[in-house]
Q: What sequence folds into this?
């Protein structure tokens, strides 16, 4: 079937060129996709290849849409290619936040943060993802919000951070990316919003974990998702937001009491929105969106947190009703900056 939309055309170009590079370089699909992203950015073949491979990649590049691509079109095409590569990968941590969830988090940033900024505040919003992966979640949020923003992301996976570079460059986003471990690396600048689809499991470097309040100590191993929450809030400005994708059982784990006490001390809990059960084949992996705000002396705790089970994102009537409930809560509980 011939590609008709810009997303399809860009995806076919990326996929065709990536498969050529994969064959020639004998490298995994995701690594070849990084190189093909560079070729698309420069609209030329940037690698030293044989003539046949170079000609085939140039032929793919010539099939790119003539008109300028919107950032969201680029993101979706790269997402499709990345998902193809992840299906072939044996790395269990290679996963991607569902599109509907990424865009919904962007909606929350718009309504809770941007719409509540002072009218004369023209400063860009600073958004940080401490487990940025391929930057799909980060760039989805940047594409959704209505005001200028600067992004920042860290990931220990070299292939994913290279994909993130290609992704952000092709979308023309102002994003700083670092190939590091965000639990080890403390950034100098504080951010307005931290977003993160938290990786789940134990953190292997117990020496580093000793510096964290959420290190359980003794013979217990620290959870990476607990340490990431602590680091994220530490990197947030007073009054800034943390929006996390968490496992539904986060507050039922063996270290839940320690986590809950720390969160109540350092933040105000704004909301817990359970994602639709239909999104998860195995309910063991079901997730929720957890929203907190870093404490500041001028802020008061909400009268009550926003607690809800989200309907299916495809159920337009139910989602419209849920959106009204969320926006009524925001209007009643979050004061506009002056």
A:
């Amino acid at each position: 079937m011939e590609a008709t939309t810009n997303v399809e055309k860009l995806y076919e170009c990326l996929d065709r060129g990536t498969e050529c590079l994969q064959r020639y370089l004998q490298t995994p699909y995701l690594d070849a996709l990084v190189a093909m992203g560079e070729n698309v950015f420069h609209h030329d073949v940037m690698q030293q290849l044989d003539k046949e491979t170079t000609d085939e990649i140039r032929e793919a590049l010539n099939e790119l849409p003539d008109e300028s691509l919107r950032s969201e079109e680029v993101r979706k095409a790269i997402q499709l290619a990345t998902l193809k590569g992840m299906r072939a990968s044996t790395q269990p941590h290679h996963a991607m936040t569902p599109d509907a969830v990424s865009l919904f988090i962007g909606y929350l940033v718009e309504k809770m943060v941007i719409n509540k900024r002072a009218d004369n505040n023209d400063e860009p919003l600073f958004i940080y993802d401490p487990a940025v992966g391929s930057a799909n979640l980060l760039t989805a949020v940047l594409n959704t919000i209505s005001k200028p923003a600067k992004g920042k992301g860290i990931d220990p996976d070299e292939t994913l951070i290279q994909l993130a570079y290609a992704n952000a460059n092709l979308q023309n986003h102002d994003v700083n990316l670092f190939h590091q471990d965000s639990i080890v690396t403390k950034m100098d600048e504080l951010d307005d919003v931290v977003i993160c689809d938290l990786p789940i499991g134990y953190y292997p470097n117990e020496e580093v974990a000793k510096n964290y309040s959420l290190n359980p100590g003794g013979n217990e191993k620290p959870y990476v998702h607990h340490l990431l929450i602590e680091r994220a809030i530490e990197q947030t400005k007073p009054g800034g937001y943390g929006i996390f994708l968490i496992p539904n059982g986060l507050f039922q784990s063996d270290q839940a009491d320690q986590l809950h006490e720390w969160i109540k001390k350092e933040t105000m809990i704004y909301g817990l929105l359970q994602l639709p059960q239909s999104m998860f084949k195995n309910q063991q992996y079901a997730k929720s969106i957890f929203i907190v705000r870093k404490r500041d002396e001028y802020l008061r705790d909400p009268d009550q947190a926003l607690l809800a089970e989200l309907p299916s994102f495809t159920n337009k009537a139910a989602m419209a009703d849920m959106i009204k409930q969320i926006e009524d809560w925001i209007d009643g509980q979050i004061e506009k900056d002056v």
User: Anything to note?
Assistant: The chain has a mean pLDDT of 93.
